[in-house]
Amino acid sequence: MLSALLLSTLAMIAIVALRYLAVSGAFAVLTARVRPGYHAGLRPQIRREIGWSLASAAIFGIPAGVVAFGWDRFGWTLIYSDWTDYPLWYLPLSVFIYLFAHDTWFYWTHRLMHRPKVFRAAHAVHHASRPPTAWAAMSFHPIEALTGAVVVPVLVFIVPIHIAMLGVVLAVMTVMGVTNHMGWEMFPRWLVRSAVGGWIITASHHQLHHERYKCNYGLYFRFWDRLCKTDRGLSESFLR
Ligand SMILES: [Zn+2]
Ligand SMILES: [Zn+2]
């Protein structure tokens, strides 16, 4: 049993690490085309970003591996695989609940991590990327990585979700984590500046967090930033 648990954990670490390398790598290649020269002089930083990100992949893989093992072996979690277990309208709702719950946790832990003492200990690593690149998606100090790693493994015990919708949540998490750091906006300007764009976080919003630090703390939605008056809008220099 112990070897099966170890195997599950190692498999999850490998999946998270490979997913990071594949998605960050793909958007880094795209960045070289869209913004030629963006990575010039950033090689030492990118090496550090990859190092911290792979360490984070290990930290993310451990709780995920334990939960995956328990799901398979003991039927833990509220993850379901039969499309008829819950009404169809619950599918998109469950994705939204996961993203909103993660966003809420992230916003408040992120604000805490911007207190000077906590910042130096746990969050300076992430802000050492100036400017961040697609490789910075998981560039976190282990303490910060741990705060992120527990979110989905805890949620699957509280909120039912179809396995495919969990895949959607993880895909959104990965792609937005990468694209919000890659140094350019992939969404059309009309969408970013639309009424819907006013509630959603894309690269132009998170870039301003990396420029000014004490604002734009959210992860997916601008809800908490707008409610708590920490939203400073989009990075203008960036939307040129
Ligand atoms: Zn960031
Ligand atoms: Zn920050």
From TrEMBL:
Stored Pfam families: FA_hydroxylase
GO molecular function: iron ion binding; oxidoreductase activity
Subcellular location field: Membrane
Gene Ontology process terms (BP): lipid biosynthetic process
Record field: transmembrane: 6-30, 50-69, 89-108, 145-178
Major location category of this protein: membrane
Cellular-component GO terms for this entry: membrane
Domain Fatty acid hydroxylase residues, every copy: 96-230
Keywords: Membrane, Transmembrane, Transmembrane helix
PANTHER family, alphabetized: STEROL DESATURASE
Entry protein name: Fatty acid hydroxylase family protein
Organism expressing this protein natively: Alteriqipengyuania lutimaris
